[in-house]
């Protein structure tokens, strides 16, 4: 089945799962004598709640379901659809307040009954969840603390909403509707258990051992891993995995990193990690022999998904890692297609993998264009951002028959994507991996 068909299939499954409970609950018998607006308000509440419940499925990292889109798109969808769900859920009480302003009294948590209390608490949790996610960086929330809070608030919001629905009782009185109403949260709890228990157990059973930690140019470290008692991971060059290093997989303290090693070496994995924050600064302290755990592979950013006459890679700083994996893989496969790499860095000394890239350009049909922000004296190469003029200077006549892979800091990626579109590269030939997607 093609990726497009598989993508359509999973979108269909999502729509069915989100809306089927709503239609089932609205089937006869429904309470009589209620006006259209009241029914609409309830329908929006149910649809919003089902969307929130299925958010657990979107972040459960089901490989098959995520494969046609890529994990970044799934997370992006998770973010956007939560805004739609919250709008639906907010519309539910707002319509009730407009229909009868006396309903406003239900906002009073002291005097209101448990039915309203559960609804209000659920909504409050949801609003805090959305606010802390949209403005996490502005609020200076530590990622790990935010992630724990995010999970707890989500479980509370959905749980309280279920209590609200159960106490209200309309639409869930018929026994088969009760069955459905029990099946749904059971499924959602199952998803939580899958993420919190089953995935860590699977990771624990397939450990990796650190075999070396090597310093690279540009403040990065390459962590080499070998599988212990299993065959390792089969991944596509350019994909990534979530790495757990200092904790047990149950702690869910994991970080995503692109494989930088060749995909032809499932038993010899490498990640190249730039020391930028709390976790990444500790990589250099990992000693050979230390156990590590991986959840992966994930991601759609790979030459193996896009067959083309040739490839153009555009990397900024540590964004070279997935591209390095693709180049190393192509070299091992003795690929002869034309390859062009634009690689933007601060200075010549910062160029991660500089020497190996030079060697790869001898083994592959690869041309490398370095561009530097702070070039050394006598530098005759490119300087500054990659832009349309720079692309035109180096791309071949057949540039529209190439596929383009971009990875780097967000501003660089935005500029390069615009420049490629500006010079006429078709959108479906431009592929990006954003390290900021979480
Ligand atoms: C698909 C993908 C592939 C990546 N590949 C590489 C790579 O090959 N090499 C590399 O050096 N970096 C890579 N990164 C970036 C790397 O994951 C972050 O730099 C790292 O997680 C930051 O952690 P920290 O605690 O050191 O930084 P902090 O300073 O604590 O965090 C900086 C920012 O990083 C993000 N972040 C922090 N913790 C996590 C976490 N547990 N999970 C996800 N994001 C987090 C948050 O947005 C946070 O605001 C990749 C990111 C993604 C999404």
Q: What order do the helices and strands come in, and which of them pair?
A:
Blueprint: H1 3-26, H2 36-58, H3 63-66, H4 71-99, H5 114-134, H6 143-168, H7 175-205, E1 208-216, E2 220-227, E3 240-244, E4 255-258, E5 269-274, E6 291-298, E7 310-316, H8 320-332, E8 339-345, H9 354-363, E9 366-372, E10 382-383, H10 388-394, E11 402-407, H11 410-423, E12 430-433
Parallel strand pairs: 7-8, 7-11, 8-9, 9-10, 11-12
Antiparallel strand pairs: 1-2, 1-6, 2-5, 3-4, 3-6
Helix pairs in contact: 1-2, 2-4, 2-7, 4-5, 5-6, 10-11
Bound molecules: flavin-adenine dinucleotide.
Mean pLDDT score, rounded? 91
Poorly predicted parts: none
Helix residue percentage? 40-55%
Could you say which structural class the secondary elements and strand pairing correspond to?
A: alpha/beta
The largest sheet, given as strand count, sense and whether it forms a barrel, is:
6 strands, antiparallel
Structurally, the number of domains stands at 3
| Biggest sheet strand line-up | 4-3-6-1-2-5
């Amino acid at each position: 089945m093609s990726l497009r068909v598989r993508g359509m299939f999973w979108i269909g499954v999502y729509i069915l799962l989100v809306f089927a409970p709503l239609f089932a609950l609205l089937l006869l018998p429904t309470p009589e004598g209620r006006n259209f607006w009241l029914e609409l308000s309830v329908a929006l509440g149910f649809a919003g709640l089902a969307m929130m419940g299925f958010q657990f499925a979107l972040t459960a990292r089901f490989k098959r379901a995520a494969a046609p889109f890529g994990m970044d798109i799934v997370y992006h969808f998770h973010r956007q659809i939560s805004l739609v769900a919250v709008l639906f859920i907010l519309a539910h009480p707002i319509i009730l307040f407009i229909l009868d302003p006396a309903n406003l009294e239900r906002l009073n948590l002291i005097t209101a009954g448990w039915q309203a209390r559960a609804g209000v608490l659920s909504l409050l949790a949801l609003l805090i969840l959305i606010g802390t996610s949209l403005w996490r960086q502005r609020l200076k929330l530590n990622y790990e603390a935010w992630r724990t809070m995010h999970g707890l608030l989500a479980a509370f919001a959905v749980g309280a909403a279920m209590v609200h629905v159960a106490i209200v009782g309309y639409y869930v009185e018929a026994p088969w509707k009760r069955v459905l109403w029990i099946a749904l949260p059971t499924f959602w709890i199952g998803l939580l258990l899958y993420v919190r228990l089953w995935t860590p157990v699977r990771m624990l059973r397939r450990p990796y051992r650190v075999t070396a930690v090597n310093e690279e140019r540009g403040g990065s470290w390459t962590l080499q891993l070998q599988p212990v008692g299993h065959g390792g991971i089969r991944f596509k060059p350019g994909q990534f995995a979530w790495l757990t290093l200092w904790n047990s997989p149950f702690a869910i303290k994991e970080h995503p990193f692109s494989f930088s090693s060749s995909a032809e070496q499932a038993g010899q994995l490498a990640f190249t990690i730039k020391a930028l924050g709390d976790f990444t600064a500790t990589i250099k302290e990992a000693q050979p022999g230390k156990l590590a755990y991986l959840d992966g592979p994930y991601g759609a950013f790979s030459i193996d998904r896009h067959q083309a006459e040739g490839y153009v890679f555009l990397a900024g700083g540590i964004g070279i890692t997935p591209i390095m994996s693709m180049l190393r893989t192509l070299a091992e496969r003795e690929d002869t297609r034309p390859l062009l790499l634009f690689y933007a860095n601060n200075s010549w000394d910062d160029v991660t993998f500089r020497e190996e890239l030079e060697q790869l350009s001898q083994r592959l049909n690869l041309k490398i264009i370095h561009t530097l922000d702070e070039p050394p004296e006598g530098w005759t190469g490119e300087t500054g951002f990659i832009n349309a003029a720079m692309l035109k200077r180096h791309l071949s006549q057949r540039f529209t028959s190439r596929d383009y892979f971009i990875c780097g800091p967000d501003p660089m990626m935005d500029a390069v994507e615009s420049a490629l579109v500006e010079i006429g590269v078709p959108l479906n030939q431009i592929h990006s991996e954003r390290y900021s997607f979480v």
